[in-house]
């Protein structure tokens, strides 16, 4: 099973207690990886939130990934870091984090996808598949056909993100992508555990 299969990206607008509840329930429902995102620029708050999620994940075997900030990932001893195109270059990040931490990188077009194949990263986030309110500065929308082509072109594992929900997740899974990342479909669900369970069931039934 791919460790990226059902990849939860946290909502940085939720308070810390809600965050912990969502992550705890989502993991019970079958989430396989958790990325903590904090876009407000408050490093102390980011560290606090990351530590809170780390405490929830303790003993579950689910890796903790930090979005954008290598310093925060190192500070909380996370399992990995996920970078965007405007963040620290992947080669420098790899030098800082060593060989054992996971390193992910978002790619927003075919050129970035091709260039990333030779970088010291473990996986790529293909962003954004569809338009989404959580990501407003997208370069392009890959769509299903674009994602299929990316899967064929990449030797690195790919995680699809952006505008994915229960109504379109089956089509995404059928492309053969290694993982699917979700924010709203889990974070804003009435029952994050049940939502995660149902979403994972759709993914697994699509790849059998």
What does this molecule look like?
By secondary structure, this protein is α/β, with parallel strands linked by helices. The chain is built from nine helices and eight strands. The protein has helices at about 15-30, 45-55, 70-75, 90-95, 110-115, 145-155, 170-175, 185, 190-205, and strands at about 5-10, 35, 65, 80-85, 100-105, 125, 160, 180. It has an eight-stranded parallel β-barrel, surrounded by six helices. Helix 1 (about 15-30) packs parallel to helix 2 (about 45-55) and helix 1 packs parallel to helix 9 (about 190-205). The radius of gyration is 16 Å and the shape is globular. About 45% of the residues are buried. The mean pLDDT is about 95.
Strand proportion, as a percent range, falls in 15-25%
Main pleated sheet: 8 strands, parallel, barrel
First-residue to last-residue Cα separation:
11 Å
Shape: globular
> What's the total helix number?
9
Number-wise, the strands total: 8
Sheet/helix structural class: alpha/beta
Using only C-alpha atoms, the radius of gyration works out to: 16 Å
Oligomeric nature of the chains: single chain
Mean pLDDT, all residues:
95
Order of helix and strand elements from N to C terminus: EHEHEHEHEHEHEHEHH
Q: Unreliable stretches, pLDDT < 50, 5 or more residues?
A: none
Strand order of the largest sheet: 1-2-3-4-5-6-7-8
Helix fraction, binned, reads 40-55%
């Amino acid at each position: 099973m791919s460790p990226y299969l059902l990849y939860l990206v946290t909502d940085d607008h939720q308070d810390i207690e809600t965050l912990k509840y969502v992550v705890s329930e989502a993991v019970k429902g079958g989430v396989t990886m958790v990325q903590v995102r904090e876009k407000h620029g408050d490093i102390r708050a980011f560290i606090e939130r990351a530590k809170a999620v780390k405490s929830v994940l303790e003993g579950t075997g689910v890796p903790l990934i930090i979005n954008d900030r290598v310093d925060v990932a190192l500070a909380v001893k996370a399992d990995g870091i996920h970078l965007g195109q405007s963040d620290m270059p992947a080669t420098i990040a790899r030098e800082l984090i060593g060989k054992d931490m996971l390193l992910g990188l978002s790619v927003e077009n075919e050129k970035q996808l091709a260039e990333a194949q030779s970088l010291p990263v473990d996986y790529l986030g293909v962003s954004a598949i569809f338009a989404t309110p959580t990501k407003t500065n997208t370069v392009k929308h890959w769509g299903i056909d674009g994602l299929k082509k990316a899967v064929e072109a990449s030797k690195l594992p790919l995680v699809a993100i952006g505008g994915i929900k229960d109504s379109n997740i089956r089509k995404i899974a059928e492309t053969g992508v290694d993982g699917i990342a979700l924010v709203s479909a889990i974070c804003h669900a009435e029952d994050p555990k049940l939502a995660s369970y149902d979403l994972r069931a759709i993914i697994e039934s699509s790849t059998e």
